[in-house]
């Protein structure tokens, strides 16, 4: 049975009781940051709380592994919109330990496509058209590698401004402990030099 009817019933009461008032903000991130992170369910509430972020403080872009696979894909577009249109002044890439994208079994996943009814000819056609499954379903050997891959892709993007710092971190999905992988200031922040 689908959970959707229960979600819709809750939503109706939520709106009727005006519980949304506690979350009202505008579209501009108050703390002027955009965060590329993983879609892992453990990070949904933990990550903002571990960074003392409230609703409206940051733009969150989530995908599997916080990994950018295409320089002109939707995640990179979201980062560019956050910077150019919504006022983000820094980008944080936050991966996490115990990520499902670590050593992702591409062949096993393709096998699951077939188990769920995807015709193997479709996969073969995609491969022949240049959509290589091992690249499309790219994982990494450790979260630090994934974070640095995304940081480098953002920094080197031809449309990304050079004066916007891109930081990289790995968070522990149980404790919220954040490890710095790269702290990217082209020049020292004023708070540290004064």
From TrEMBL:
Keyword Cytoplasm found: no
Cofactor: Zn(2+)
Database matches in Pfam families: Pro_CA
Transmembrane segments: none
CDD domains for the chain: beta_CA_cladeD
EC code(s) of this entry: 4.2.1.1
Similarity comment: Belongs to the beta-class carbonic anhydrase family.
Name assigned to this protein: carbonic anhydrase
């Amino acid at each position: 049975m689908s959970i959707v009817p229960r979600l819709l019933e809750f939503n109706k009461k939520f709106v009727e009781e005006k519980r949304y008032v506690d979350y009202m903000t505008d579209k501009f991130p108050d703390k002027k940051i955009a965060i590329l992170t993983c879609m892992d369910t453990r990070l949904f509430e933990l990550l903002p709380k571990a960074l003392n972020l409230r609703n409206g403080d940051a733009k969150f872009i989530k995908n599997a592994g916080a990994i950018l696979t295409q320089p002109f894909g939707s995640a990179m577009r979201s980062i560019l919109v956050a910077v150019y249109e919504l006022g983000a002044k820094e980008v944080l890439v936050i991966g996490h330990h115990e990520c499902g994208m670590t050593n992702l079994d591409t062949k096993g996943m393709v096998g699951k496509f077939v188990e769920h009814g995807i015709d193997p000819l479709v996969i073969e056609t995609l491969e022949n058209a240049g959509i290589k499954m091992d690249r499309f379903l790219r994982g990494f050997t450790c979260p630090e590698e994934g974070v640095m891959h995304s940081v480098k892709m953002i920094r080197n993007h031809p449309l990304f401004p050079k004066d916007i710092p891109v930081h990289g971190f790995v968070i522990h999905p149980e404790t919220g402990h954040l490890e710095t992988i790269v702290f990217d200031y082209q020049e020292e922040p004023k708070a540290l030099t004064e």
